[in-house]
Amino acid sequence: MRGIVLLSVLLLATFQLTLSITDGLLDNGNFELSPKATEMNGTVVKGRYAIPKWEISGFVEYIKSGQKQGDMLLVVPEGACAVRLGNEASIKQRVKVSKGQYYSITFCAARTCAQEERLNVSVPPDFGILPIQTLYGSNGWDCYSWAFLAPLNEVDIIVHNPGVEEDPACGPLIDSIALKALVSPKPTSANLIRNPSFETGPFMFNTTTGVLVPPNIEDDHSPLPYWMVESLKAVKYIDSDHFSVPHGKRAVELVAGKESAIAQVVRTIPKKTYVLTFLVGDANNACEGSMVIEAFAGRDTVKVPYQSKGKGGSKPGLLKFVATQSRTRIMFLSTYYSMRTDDFSSLCGPVLDNVRLVSLRKPT
Ligand SMILES: *[C@@H]1O[C@H](CO)[C@@H](O)[C@H](O)[C@H]1NC(C)=O
Ligand SMILES: *[C@@H]1O[C@H](CO)[C@@H](O)[C@H](O)[C@H]1NC(C)=O
Ligand SMILES: *[C@@H]1O[C@H](CO)[C@@H](O)[C@H](O)[C@H]1NC(C)=O
What we know:
disordered N terminus; 2 domains; Jelly Rolls; 1 helix; mainly beta
């Protein structure tokens, strides 16, 4: 008996150790450890292993905050350094993970002069092409998330610029790359929605930028477990340390109007009546005015208006429906586009949180 107790304590300890090691910045994930001067030519990194902890390939530049490019002043979101990936350039780091576990990668990127910038984030054989053309924040930098299922106990994390621009100095800047194990939230009988309050999601940096959850490609794993971001644009994942969040510590901000919808498919029993409830609010980020969240459950829909003063707050929304299928798609989007009143160039929108779905005992 004592043996079993000891064993389970050990197992628990190992399990927690594995998780705690992987949550946070990768080694030199913010690029603050710089290459030796002898391994640089101007800003261009020459050696394959010149950037501590990383392996590079192609035209990679090491950028310091305040550096100029033409008449553009380059800023770095965290610390003082970042890297730039030229055409077909990539950076790679090998990390220890647990086989069969889901992980999310968070990184920040800034578009420079190229129009159609995309990044290929991969943990072979999985990869995701993330468009970084739309600017959501105002300082040029946005943080993105992507998820993968670890195929082995050790994987390569690669960020690659698949671009083919005439000027290699037009490639995107990259900073702050972090990893987080996604521990699947347990379903409860009291709520048919999984990860209902968005508490499980990508790693968040200690900044006010939030993290974008890009549209999921078919069969891709979501960095926001059980939720799919549909249509063209991203939703923003926000935390209660830097934003007003209606419930728990996390929520999503619908920043791209009708161009971004977030959905989850749930099992339902045809002819049974269900009640969907949720909170609609604002993130206390100077996003003011009339907002509307549209909720859909199969073919039923409701519009919940919310008048935002940009200072935080929320109100409940409700949609009662009779299921017609054994699976029902629950989906939310913002009817309008909003811009922050403090900088006019950051997209913002209503906040969605605490989504609940219960079935009514008797059809009414
Ligand atoms: C450094 O780069 C310049 C311009 O691209 C090139 O002309 C020069 O040969 C390079 N120097 C070394 C030591 O590689
Ligand atoms: C993305 O990168 C992975 C591996 O790093 C590669 O196998 C894949 O072909 C790349 N995809 C594109 C579209 O460049
Ligand atoms: C987050 O950033 C703020 C302001 O820069 C700082 O005061 C705080 O200590 C940081 N928190 C953590 C956990 O690093």
